[in-house]
Every structure is written in C-alpha cells, then in structure tokens.
Design goal:
189 residues; single chain; 7 strands
C-alpha cells in the first residue's frame, strides 16, 4: 500500500515542477498589452510633462444647462481650472486666471473653462459673481471629470494643447499669476 501511494505522488512531480519553476517565469516576461510608463510617472522620473497620445474629451453643463465639450475647442489652447466654493486657495487663484484670460483670449485664442467641484449651482453662481469671472463655469459636483485627471486636491489645472492633448497638469498648491502665465507660455502657447 505504501508503495502504491508513493507511485501516485511520483506521477505529480512534473506538474509540481511546472507550477513552481516554469510558471512563475511567465510573469516576468514583458506584457505587450500593458502600457509603458508615461513621462513623469513614478516608473519614469523624467521631468518632462505628460502629453497624451490621443486627445481627451469630456462634456459638462454650465450654470444655465448649456453643454460644453472639450473637443469643441480643438485648435485652441485651453486652461481647465478646477475649483471649489469653499476653497480659499481657489479664491486666490481664480482672479489671477481671469486676468490671464482677459490678457490672452484675443492674442492667443485662450479658452478658459472653470470647473466647479463639490459645489452647488448656487454656490458656483456666487463664486462667479464675486470674482467677476467671464469664462464659462461648468458643474462637476460629483467630481466625475475631476477624477479622470486627479486623485485629490484643488485648485487644480489642466493645460490642453491645440491638438486636444493634456500638455500639463498641476494640483499641488495655488499658483501666482506669473507662475500660471509661465506654464501657459511653456506648454500651450
């Protein structure tokens, strides 16, 4: 009986060898279907900004219910500014963005889209009025569009080049007007 059990176990040795030696090696081979690290990602610490291979699009409604799609602005540089009604840094940064919009909307065809996150339509109207914002304010109350680009933190900026690709994104802290202007000149003008 003892010899019969040993024979049964011996026939499984090739299976054990395959599982414990050959199979793990299959996972070490590069997967051609897995995307390569993008510039600026943790796997690629190069300082160059990420530029998507394809244009990115989203559609949001403004405060009057009119639909705006990012794709309708292809051929123009676009600054998308995510902000919240209660965010003090946003309250500092949005007037700076308004100044740059007024400065560059004609000469560079700059489009600015303000995207309000976690704020009611009433709060967004108050914010727009209080700071005299003349560019479209879009509603992203649930942060659906925001979370396509960022994990957390506002204010946040996306710079979209004329091809509709994300040329630069930023959400680490509020920026001065000069810093925002330098980013516009470096990445989308």
């Amino acid at each position: 009986m003892k010899n019969g059990k040993q024979n049964q176990l011996l026939k499984y040795i090739p299976l054990f060898l395959f599982i414990f030696t050959l199979l793990p090696g299959c996972f070490l081979v590069d997967n051609p279907y897995q995307p390569s690290p993008t510039p600026g990602s943790p796997a690629d610490p190069s300082p160059t900004p990420y530029v998507s291979p394809n244009a990115i699009d989203f559609t949001l409604a403004d405060l009057d219910g009119n639909q705006y799609s990012l794709s309708e602005f292809r051929g123009k540089p676009v600054l998308v500014a995510f902000f919240g009604f209660l965010c003090s840094h946003c309250r500092n940064e949005m007037p700076r963005i308004q100044n740059l919009y007024m400065k560059y909307k004609e000469s560079q065809n700059l489009i600015v889209l303000g995207v309000g996150v976690s704020s009611s339509i009433g709060q967004l109207r108050d914010f727009q009025s209080q700071y005299g914002l003349t560019f479209p304010i879009l509603d992203d109350y649930n942060r659906d569009v925001y979370h396509r680009f960022f994990g957390s933190g506002i204010p946040a900026l996306l710079l979209i080049n004329k091809s509709g690709e994300v040329a630069y994104s930023y959400n680490q802290s509020e920026l001065s007007e000069t810093e925002i202007e330098n980013l516009l000149n470096s990445y989308i003008f």
